[in-house]
Amino acid sequence: MITGKNYIGNQLSAIGNKTYTTFNPELNEENTTVFTKATSDEINEAVALSSEAFKEFRKVSGERKAAFLNAIADEILTLDDLLIQTYCLETGLPEGRAKGERARTIGQLRSFANLVAEGSWVEATIDTAQPNREPMPKSDIRKMLIPLGPVVVFGASNFPLAYSTAGGDTAAALASGCPVIVKSHPMHAGTGELVASAIIKAAEKTGMPNGVFSNLNSSGIDVGQQLVSHPNVKAVGFTGSIKGGRSLLDLAAKREEPIPVFAEMGSINPVVILPKALENRQKEIAKTYASSIALGTGQFCTNPGLLLGVKSDSLSSFIKSLSHEIMKINPSCMLHPNIKKGYINNKEKVISQANISVTANYTSEIKNNYAEQAIVSVTGKDFLENPILHLEVFGPFSMVVQCENEVELESIISKIEGQLTGTVISDDNEVSEYSEIIAALQNRVGRIIFNGVPTGVEVCESMVHGGPYPASTDSRFSAVGITSIKRWVRPFSYQDWPNNLLPKELQDDNPLSIFRIKDGIRSK
After folding, report:
1. Phi, psi angles (nearest 5°) of residue 115
2. CA dist., res. 68 & res. 203, Å (int)
3. Which of 138, 157, 196, 324 could pair with 130 in a Cys bridge, judged by C-beta atoms 3.0 to 4.6 Å apart?
4. 198 neighbors 72 (Cβ within 8 angstroms)
């Protein structure tokens, strides 16, 4: 059952006296469980245990790490209805969403388990010695990826399972051999604590070292700041706002030993609707995008917040159709009153700008913490000249930009901030005529969708969930899929090392039977 305490390694702890509760946005009332904010002593204890655990955990075999990750998945499933009910009480999200996100979380854990059990992810590379090489001998050099050390993961407000306590960052870090300290999100501390209990049980059952995982509660920012500043923390994972991610990035950079912060932050996910597509099926596109904009009350980092097209009668008709379709959708609950407040403030900030045309704005009476969807329109010139219009409005909101021509469309794409996704809506072979626009879009995003919607992120090896700043702090990495493990490791070389003292991944006879590159040839 939920205790309202912190997990410090394998033990529950609550020595502080500052407490808080979570909130039920659907019922508009506080939940009853009281959570205790982690103290400085608890933070230091968690990091000390994590540092000690790293000495052993970094050497744990892929098979044992896989058993640990699979056990976490099993223990989460054992939580059953209690987890689902707690999730719903703390988010206002429906049971179906909770079960879907749990399935995604389980899938992520098992995919990383498969990855480390097989073992080739370490990218073992061997260049054998050439002692007779002229004009000078060549040493034997062998390289592989090794874990960084203790990682701090911040839970995300909008994904209490898949991007939080046992979410993608945690699963990837544990798979790499890095112990994890989670700074639980205060909006769903109960959900986080249940998942933390599952991770601890899995660690004990599979013989992982004490301190391989800790979960710390806090309703403010100081616990997170202390964790990021701690000299024994070696990397940070964050999913949230640009303000929050940037503050952590700056804090980590100011340390005596700067550390990487892998933050996935804001995105308005531009959608380019080409002229023929608008002319031939604007009503169909409008209906599809109204649903995407309102999906999950617009609380997805891939929400399509910016729709771009060239001025035409078809674009005008599309705006009317989109506005009509989105007004037909019943408003739904946001995650928290603070998120609803932020949505209203940012929406009003955009709407109040000069030359903004509000084409849809739900005004009927709604329940507390529900969000009124809106569509606005603006010219390409005004969008280019007013950076406030580039603001991410986190919720069921989207802006249609009417460009004068293709030149202005390309200019807008080239000048918008980095994004997680870009989408192209095209008919026939129309897209082949817009290569410069596609190239400009590719330069600003991490993923391009063709004739679809950006909402929905498939968890697979080919997925890139990241992009140029401020979509993420490092566009070279994905926050989703098994390749995200590369954020928590570094390359390391052994030179002229005795074969029997090398890691198994690099030994001559390849005892793990993994794929390796040896003298330029990849094989087992």
Report:
1. -60, -50
2. 6
3. 138
4. yes
At residue 483, the 3 state secondary structure works out as helix
The Cα-based distances of 388 to 353, 357, 383, 422 in angstroms read 8, 15, 9, 20
Catalytic sites, residue numbers: 264, 301
Single pTM value for the model: 0.96
With contact defined as beta carbons under 8 Å apart, do 209 and 180 qualify? no
Rounded Cα–Cα distance for residues 75 and 64 (Å): 16
- Give the end-to-end CA distance of the chain in Å, rounded to a whole number: 47
d(CA 453, CA 182): 32
CA torsion 273→276→279→280, rounded to 10°? -110
H helix and E strand count, the chain: 13, 21
- How far is Cα 494 from Cα 507, in angstroms, rounded to an integer? 11
Q: What is the pLDDT of residues 176-218, one digit of tens each?
A: 999 999 999 999 999 999 999 999 999 999 999 999 999 999 9
Region 484-496 average pLDDT: 98
pLDDT at residue 3 in the model: 64
Percent of the chain beyond pLDDT 90? Answer: 97
Confidence of residue 60 (pLDDT cuts 50, 70, 90): very high
CA distance 405 to 413: 13
Would you say 318 and 309 are in contact if contact means Cβ atoms under 8 Å apart? yes
Residue 67, amino acid: A
Strands 261-264 and 270-273: unpaired
- Residue found by looking up tokens 């529900």 in the block: 370
Tokens of residue 314, six digits: 């078809």
**Rounded Cα gap, residues 343 and 349, in angstroms:** 10
